[in-house]
Amino acid sequence: MSKPATPVAPPLKDELDIVIPTIRNLDFLEMWRPFFQPYHLIIVQDGDPTKTIKVPEGFDYELYNRNDINRILGPKASCISFKDSACRCFGFLVSKKKYIFTIDDDCFVAKDPTGKEINALQQHIQNLLTPSTPFFFNTLYDPFRDGADFVRGYPFSMREGVPTAVSHGLWLNIPDYDAPTQLVKPLERNTRYVDAVLTIPKGTLFPMCGMNLAFDRELIGPAMYFGLMGDGQPIGRYDDMWAGWCTKVITDHLGLGVKTGLPYIWHSKASNPFVNLKKEYKGIYWQEDIIPFFQSVTLPKECTTVQKCYTELSKLVKEKLGPIDPYFQKLADAMVTWIDAWDELNSPAQSAPAAADAKKDGSSSKKK
Amino acid sequence: MSQVIIKDDEVDIVIGALQSDLTSFMEAWRPMFSRFHLIIVKDPDLKEELKVPGGFNLNLYTKSDMDKVVDSSSSTISFSGYSCRYFGYLMSRKKYIISIDDDCIPAKDSKGELIDAVAQHITNLTTPATPFFFNTLYDPFSEGTDFVRGYPFSLRSGVECGLSCGLWLNLADYDAPTQALKPSARNSRYVDAVLTVPARTMLPLSGINIAFNNELVGPTLLPAFRLAKEGKFRWETVEDIWTGMCAKVVCDHLRLGVKSGLPYVWRQERGNAVESLKKEWEGVQLMEEVVPFFQSVRLSEAAVTAEDCIAEIAASVKEQLGRSNPMFARAAENMVEWIKLWKQVRSL
């Protein structure tokens, strides 16, 4: 893609929301200001709703705390996790935009090997706006990137690609390791900049990390449910994993693409591995059953929309994973609640933005 | 990650000579090749004497050697052009084989240092592959990286790696139409990663810069599918693409891994893509038909060796593709004959 000689408006300025879950503060936004300021933010405030989270001046945003979530969803609020970054999916639910970029509040701007600051948002947009190639692996990675193409032997009939539903970015510095790996290698840092974007092939699952993620809400939004985690739940740190497995099964079924690789962000905070271990440990051994389940799931061809696929998945979760632990029965129910909430908030009749219920640009925030 | 120690005598470097003067090629690779035994196979169509510099431990095979092993009057197997290297694979008794086209020289990495492609291929082949679940930080067995959160623990020991496919800087392995459309396109992007191509995912397995575990998949690297007007430039061939798809099916079935990525080699300018485009392209069209076949072919549980797998694939090719075009029927015959040849040569 060639770059225009004169500056143009930030791409997708009015079509993309940036969703940020936070329980601490939003200081990290200062560093992102040059890249994020043109865009609308949806802040999902986790934890104590009486705490005031200050948003740096100059950003256009909506902010939702637990009270807002309860008010907007009523009894359906039970599907949104508390005290876990899984609550971010509430932001996906209430957004009215076509695209979402979500990022954690301990993720900063990284530099590429030339020392240039990486505009992660722009790279995600490029990933989403160019096709994916899930049916045949291109050894030179994303053929739609500048300076790359399909290699010899790549079937011509597959060179148009399919629409990209998800763009999964990576992390320099603190890598996204699980607790056991963190305990064994507390000092390992990811310093390797891999200059590639690639499509994850059809039929292959992957661990989707929610720290630096973008997706096309119209294509896959209802599948981006981050599950029941955190407070009152037997498991944590598997929210994005769960969303990723569901999403991949559905994108494979619907013929959509998932990309991974660039952009990198700089992940600054290494969470406590002992705390993480407590959250993850059930997930570590449950996943040995969960993975074969997702690898063998087939969705009927009548499932032509994401919601239908997701509802079908929830039935299969209840049936096949329910026997492992009652948690999965609860989760399956929550998946149904989520779809109900999604349809309710995103039906064509819903013209007034949910933003009317939220706090806006600084006017009502109180300083502690 | 601990250093991989392999015995030098476990490796053969097989070079197909399509040009007669290999001096600059061999000198460029001398630092990386000199430890190892080399097998050089001369394209039987090449008339001139081969020029090879001294100081290498090598065996040279030519047309007369091929004629002793393969009766050209009764066989349809051809070692012409790029397929000459397969004779080298047939003759090798080593565990690991590395093969690089004779128009490639060592590339430089992003730090400006010469890449030892041989060492990288050996590392790829001797560390586990992870075909059943995608690791977003790529090869978890590389230095400074690991499995990410959410990667199932039961899959973390990985499986053996059967094939290592390297890449190319400068002249990438594009087909003639692509290269003709973008004549100045050169690959300058160094992607610092190795990754396992997931199970049941097909890929174009280029023969330009490749290595494999001969003990596990040796018979799979075979000369089977020739275009009617196959030429002496890579973009006038698809033989490696056919073989590559067979090899991927075999590896998937035997639960072996196929890695792609590093090492890079520097592929030199050669040939004219527009000229190549003028040749007949029936063969390339045919390849479109075979993709659905390779994506869906399944082998029986009884196929437990690479030879078994090739025999089954050949039978399926003959039955499902052979009817529509005699080129496929011939490819299937070549595959069956190759396995016979393979066993014969090894029983001597």
Automatic annotation (TrEMBL), chain A:
GO terms for biological process: cell wall organization; plant-type cell wall organization or biogenesis; UDP-L-arabinose metabolic process. The keyword Protease does not apply. Pfam families: RGP (PF03214). Its EC number is 5.4.99.30. Keywords: Cell wall biogenesis/degradation, Glycoprotein, Golgi apparatus, Isomerase. It catalyses: UDP-beta-L-arabinofuranose = UDP-beta-L-arabinopyranose. Probable UDP-L-arabinose mutase involved in the biosynthesis of cell wall non-cellulosic polysaccharides. This is UDP-arabinopyranose mutase. It comes from Sesamum indicum. The lineage of its organism: Eukaryota, Viridiplantae, Streptophyta, Embryophyta, Tracheophyta. The gene is LOC105158147.
UniProtKB/TrEMBL annotation, chain B:
One of its GO terms (cellular component) is cytosol. One of its GO terms (biological process) is cell wall organization. One of its GO terms (molecular function) is UDP-arabinopyranose mutase activity. Belongs to the RGP family. It is found in: Golgi apparatus. The keyword Cell wall biogenesis/degradation applies. Keywords: Cell wall biogenesis/degradation, Golgi apparatus. Pfam families: RGP (PF03214). This is Probable UDP-arabinopyranose mutase 5 isoform X1.
